[in-house]
Amino acid sequence: MLQVLKNRVYRHLYAAQLVALTGTGLATVALSLLAYDLAGDAAGMVLGTALTIKMTAYVVVAPIAAAFAERVNRRRMLVTLDLLRAGVAVCLPFVTEIWQVYVLIFVLQSASAGFTPAFQATIPDVLPDEQDYTNALSLSRLAMDLESLLSPALAAALLLLVSYDSLFWGTGLGFVASALLVVSVALPSPKPAKRHGIYDRTTRGIRIYLNTPRLRGLLALNWVSAALGSMVFVNTVVLVRSDLGLAESAVALALAGFGLGSMLAALILPRVLHQVEDRSVMLAGAVLGMGAMGAAALMSQLVPMTLALLSLFWAMIGFGYSTILTPSGRLLARSAHAADRPAVYAAQFTLSHACWLIFYPLAGWLMTVGGATFAMGVLAIASLAGATAAWALWPRHSGQPVAHSHPDLPPDHPHLAGAGPHSHAIIIDELHPRYPQEP
């Protein structure tokens, strides 16, 4: 897996991801303390509103940013957005009103909504070999899981020495370091052969996404991962602190179970994906996560839930969650031409976060009105529905050549190469606006 770090460009991009994630982790801790400083007991409402603003920015801004991405140099765009995020981070220590937090969070997350899909779309251009790209996806998943485990510990250590305001300066430094690493290498910046209007560029990624059968299956799997993850991320603190009556440190242990399961999946997936098709692996992950959630709901009715048992279920869900998400970049890379990848990655960013925008508040509401067993049961059923939809929407061997014809093209068109009906793997573009049906 680590051999991909021999590629200098990818090594710098991966380091940029690591320092930016560390900065983001520090900001998460600092923001919760800032909210408590400004709102006291109402801090939860402030954070909930900030999270909603974050998801709204992701859903709305990502496709718009992708529309402009094809017109600008990709490296310049990434560096500019990193510096914008750094500027916002260093403004946060000076806020005195809650509305200022909301405004800055919207700007920060809007910049992230432009940065993340463009950054992700660059990796398959840097690592064109699919096995190398698979290893890179696993390394990226490991980085995110390690951040969730280590950043709180780092923040706690720093808070022994400095005030929480200083953590925002650490966040700003992380984004500046990311910008310096990005600017230190030359990045591919493919341009479309044909220029498109603003509406076409804004909607292009979503149209490609929804017209590609395997990506429609991926959308259903995004639904599953959001249903599973929302229970863990939203309700673990309530489960541990209220239901189990344990200390704050136990919350971290339960979440560590989820993170360790996710990391284990990321470590073994490159070898598995070399032998088993993505569809089977990702559907198996969905079934495992859904089964673990349903088993946790059932077990909570039969025996008293303990921290060890909860951590075990969370680890299984984390394994399934990572098994769904890690290979998704391979599907996106295969499903778009290089010039269209930023738009397609932005569509994935938008549509997956739309699922989270549904399940974040739903998970909290289910827990509030019905308790843990009810919430886990409903979210397990929602996961089952998503897995079933993915199985139905994503045909087997969807990357194989499909026989089709182009009656609208002249016989001497370069795409036909003198042939009438022909066969090749389908990527949605101007010549193939919809997936053809095999005769």
Walk me through this protein's architecture.
α10 runs antiparallel to α11. The chain has 2 domains: 186 residues, MFS general substrate transporter like domains (Growth Hormone, Chain: A, Up-down Bundle), CATH 1.20.1250.20; 191 residues, Up-down Bundle (Growth Hormone, Chain: A), CATH 1.20.1250.20. With 439 residues, it is mostly helical. The radius of gyration is 22 Å and the shape is globular.
Structure described in brief:
By secondary structure, this protein is mainly alpha-helical.
First and last CA, distance: 41 Å
CATH class categorisation of the largest domain = Mainly Alpha
Strand order of the largest sheet: 1-2
- Shape designation: globular
How large is the count of helical segments? 13
The oligomeric state is single chain
Question: Could you give a short account of the major beta sheet?
Answer: 2 strands, antiparallel
What is the rounded Rg?
Answer: 22 Å
Beta-strand percentage range:
under 5%
The overall number of domains is 2
What are the segments in which pLDDT stays under 50 over at least 5 consecutive residues? Answer: none
CATH level 3 topology of the largest domain = Growth Hormone, Chain: A
Structural class: mainly alpha
* CATH superfamily grouping of the largest domain: MFS general substrate transporter like domains
Strand element count: 2
Which percent bin holds the helix content? over 70%
CATH architectural designation of the largest domain: Up-down Bundle
**Helix-strand string:** HHHHHHHHHHHHHEE
**Average predicted confidence as pLDDT:** 84
